[in-house]
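Appendix B. Extra example for self-study. Work through it before the problem class; the solution is given directly after the inputs so you can check yourself.
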Amino acid sequence: MAKAQFNRDEVVENAIRLFWQHGYSASSMQQVVKATGLQPGSIYLAFKNKEGLFREALDAYSDHSKKRIKDALEGPDGILKGICNVLESMIEQSTQAGYNSCFLIKTQLELAAEGNTLHELASAKLDEIEALFRSYLEKECEAELAQQRAACIMLHIFGMRVYGYKPDSAQRMRDSLRLALPWLPWE
Amino acid sequence: MAKAQFNRDEVVENAIRLFWQHGYSASSMQQVVKATGLQPGSIYLAFKNKEGLFREALDAYSDHSKKRIKDALEGPDGILKGICNVLESMIEQSTQAGYNSCFLIKTQLELAAEGNTLHELASAKLDEIEALFRSYLEKECEAELAQQRAACIMLHIFGMRVYGYKPDSAQRMRDSLRLALPWLPWE
DNA sequence: GATTTTCTTGAATGGGCATTCAAGTATATT
DNA sequence: AATATACTTGAATGCCCATTCAAGAAAATC
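Solution. Structure tokens for the complete assembly:
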């Protein structure tokens, strides 16, 4: 084989950072070359094209998100308190410099033109996250209630991912969550 | 003067439709030429450049939105029921073919890179809408509570503008709103 | 009716875009 | 050592981008 191969995971992580910040259209392949350290030919051999790399970045981001949620809900605090922890960590993220919302949500809104496969991929990934919440909630309550509560959580996550751009919004989001999701153990 | 001038409002409306659907980066000036019927020279004389036209489109969209909210809250049903009507009409929008979220929210997410003036413009417009809700709510309750409730409404609007892409989400959003905003007269 | 002003026209410009590919290089195989 | 395989290199390609501007045409002014 040729000179030591590049680290695929590392490249995808760098692509996530770039695409997450600037979006699909505003990220040029020249920026991708800079961000990943790869040459055009290597990128196109490994990922086929810009869309292929973007798709893989979206996949990896979604996997990370799902893992973080699973870890929280399976943690020592239990499922319901775990949900509180997930929501609170999203609020904290929004207070940090360079806050960038959620890669999946940004993609869904940017590429919403009908039939766009990247839009549909992002939607599917968000659905998977909702299903994750639902499956855990079904251990705590009946199926129909679990489904409604999972939808309500997603609705609030989406809201926070946009409202988080507003300065000093953290406390107001905390208050809203406590009122809107009284069935969670906020204490 | 020269041959009959173009209708500025009409041009801006067409620009709104294009930018709202495809976003800033993915809308080319050639598409703008097609959508508005103007020639490049006329566009650049009237709006300076792509950003100038986009800014004016954002302004006009924001004005429409604020007017629709004002009309609803000053309507015969009263302020609180008027808020219910606004939220319900957003749910109905999301069920229609070609649903496109909200132009202000899409812009805020797409152009979130630090210091982007269009991102800041969109944020300011969304703030104005929150202030609108707050000013009306202050007629119904004390100032601090009005502020918290206005924030909560915005959080839910943002959430619905994203969750609305999910098929068959309307009923679930209705249920979530009734649980999360029990101080509104849903009846 | 001549001149100035105001707006429109649309081809031209240069730059940046996604993508390609012939050539190069290091490892594996024989 | 020779050959084949696997990967990297980076300049080159053609297309599309935002923007410009000289030329033209209609109204306003004189």
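Self-check: Chain A touches chain B at residues 21-23, 25-26, 98, 100-101, 105-106, 108-110, 112-114, 123, 126-127, 148, 151-152, 154-163, 165-166, 169, 172-173, 175-176, 179-181 (CB under 8 Å). If your reasoning did not lead you there, revisit section 3.
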